[in-house]
Amino acid sequence: MKFDFIYQRHSVRQFTGEQIPEETIKELIKAAVQAPSGKNQQNWHFVVVTDKSKIAEIARLVEAKNAELSTYLKDEAKIKAFRGTVGYHTVFKGAPVLILVYAGPYETIADMLLADGMMPASETEQYARANPGIQNIAAAMENLLLAAASSGYGTCWMTGPTYAAEEITRYVGFAKDGYHLAAMTPLGVPANDKITATPRKPVEDVMTILR
């Protein structure tokens, strides 16, 4: 059994300068929001940035935040390692489109238990581990990436740059109560057609069948 549309997806970090029609972007977002969503909350919002100067400024914000956060680290090796990630966290600056994916509120049983205060807070944590609100966002994100790949476009699922979420959100002017930046992806035509998917663990290592 083959699922070619899945194997076409891989992380792309270099793009041509070719622009993507707005109608195409809308179709990709439409595919994204067909994802399953707990309680049909659809607690997602996509901010699409197509202005190159704005994308460059977002990259600058990430660089500045990276430098700032590194001052709170003591170990030189950790500082060097963290500063070294900034190049990976700004690869989107070479893409014609940047999609910021926001996650909205999603009440769980853990929230309700914590609010009512009858169960110790330390015990309620176990009921929050599944984090369905973020699972909704991840499902939509994967739909987006698969739809883009099957249409010949490249993407790269990124969460690293979200340490600059506050600065980025303020800069783009996005304001929706309770929403926070959860992930982002560049979108564009890959600079080459080589698929560079990293090796995956054998299925036997990640699957348990109960007979």
From TrEMBL:
Taxonomy, superkingdom: Bacteria
One Pfam family from the record: Nitroreductase
Signal peptide interval: none
Domain Nitroreductase: 6-188
InterPro entries to which the protein is assigned, alphabetical: Nitroreductase, Nitroreductase-like, Nitroreductase/BluB
A GO molecular function held by the record: oxidoreductase activity
UniProt name for this protein: Protein DrgA
Organism: Sporomusa termitida
